[in-house]
Amino acid sequence: MLVFVYGTLTDPERAEAVLGRASGVGGPTPGEGIEYEYLGEATVEGLRRIEGEYPTLVPGGSVEGRLLWTTPQGIERLDAYEGVDRGLYVRVPIPRESGGRVRTYVGDPDRLEVNADWPGEGPFRNRVLATVDGGVTLHES
């Protein structure tokens, strides 16, 4: 699964601490314990990074980061690291300019002590999804 990372997980040491061993030259090899690989730089248009207790994304602008491939077990580890089960972050799909979608994590401004609002009504995840569907796109470098 592809994930757009824009904060602490852009650091290979942090990613390895969370996800395990990175792939070597030639990409991941099944059965070798490979858990992630950076696939290159990317920019998301329509969201920008903002600092709080932890970095998060808010509507407007753009944010640079990295595209990361990981296994389903890696996604479980990322969910735990990002506090998805505690409501700190939500994992949402973002459209790729080249087709398909990648996932990224967006932190709840209220939980992260960030002065930002997401438009709309209802649960935080639904407001993020509505904004993303309204014009957010990932561009690969």
Structure description:
This protein has 141 residues and is α+β, with helices and mostly antiparallel strands. It is 23% helix and 37% strand. It has helices at residues 12-19, 72-82, 109-112, 124-133; strands at residues 2-5, 36-50, 56-70, 89-95, 101-107, 137-140. The chain has a six-stranded mixed beta sheet. β2 and β3 (56-70) form a beta hairpin. The longest helix is centred in the middle third of the chain and has 11 residues, at 72-82. It is globular. The model is unreliable at 25-31 (pLDDT under 50).
Write the layout of secondary structure elements.
Layout: E1 2-5, H1 12-19, E2 36-50, E3 56-70, H2 72-82, E4 89-95, E5 101-107, H3 109-112, H4 124-133, E6 137-140
Parallel strand pairs: 1-5
Antiparallel strand pairs: 1-3, 2-3, 2-6, 4-5
